[in-house]
Amino acid sequence: MKIAVLGTGMVGQAVAGGLTRVGHHVVIGTRDPEATLARTDTDGMGNPPFSAWHAEHGDVELATYADATSGADLVVLAGNGFAALDMVTAAGADNLAGKVLVDISNPLDFSAGFPPSLFVKDTDSLGEQIQRAFPDVRVVKSLNTLTAPLMVDPKLLDESTTVFVSGDDADAKATVTDLLASLGHDDVIDLGGIETARGTEMFLPLWLRTMGALGTGMFNVKVVR
Amino acid sequence: MKIAVLGTGMVGQAVAGGLTRVGHHVVIGTRDPEATLARTDTDGMGNPPFSAWHAEHGDVELATYADATSGADLVVLAGNGFAALDMVTAAGADNLAGKVLVDISNPLDFSAGFPPSLFVKDTDSLGEQIQRAFPDVRVVKSLNTLTAPLMVDPKLLDESTTVFVSGDDADAKATVTDLLASLGHDDVIDLGGIETARGTEMFLPLWLRTMGALGTGMFNVKVVR
Question: Is it true that domain A2-214 has CATH number 3.30.70.260?
Answer without folding.
Answer: no
